[in-house]
Write a structure and sequence with these properties.
By secondary structure, the chain is mostly beta strands. It has one domain. Helix content is 0%, strand content 59%.
């Protein structure tokens, strides 16, 4: 999973098969609107470490994704 800035908003991607536009919801939580409408919507909460960097992203009813340093994988 990667989160990138696209234009003026954030986009969440799971490889080439799933992409969601993130809309700010409340504090560190964003509403993920999947571009494939069959996936519906989800909520993604960003958790920061003591330095203020994103340490993980928790997607409600799906999974928690821990930050991996290094280059992002290519699709």
């Amino acid at each position: 999973m990667t989160v990138v800035e696209e234009g003026a908003h954030l986009v969440l991607r799971f490889g080439a098969w799933a992409t969601a536009d993130l809309q700010h919801w409340h504090y560190d939580t964003f509403r993920a609107v999947w571009r494939d409408r069959e996936f519906g919507t989800d909520f993604a909460t960003f958790v920061t470490d003591v330095d203020g960097k994103v340490a993980k992203v928790a997607i409600k009813d799906m999974a928690e994704f821990v930050r991996a340093d290094g280059p992002a994988p290519h699709d």
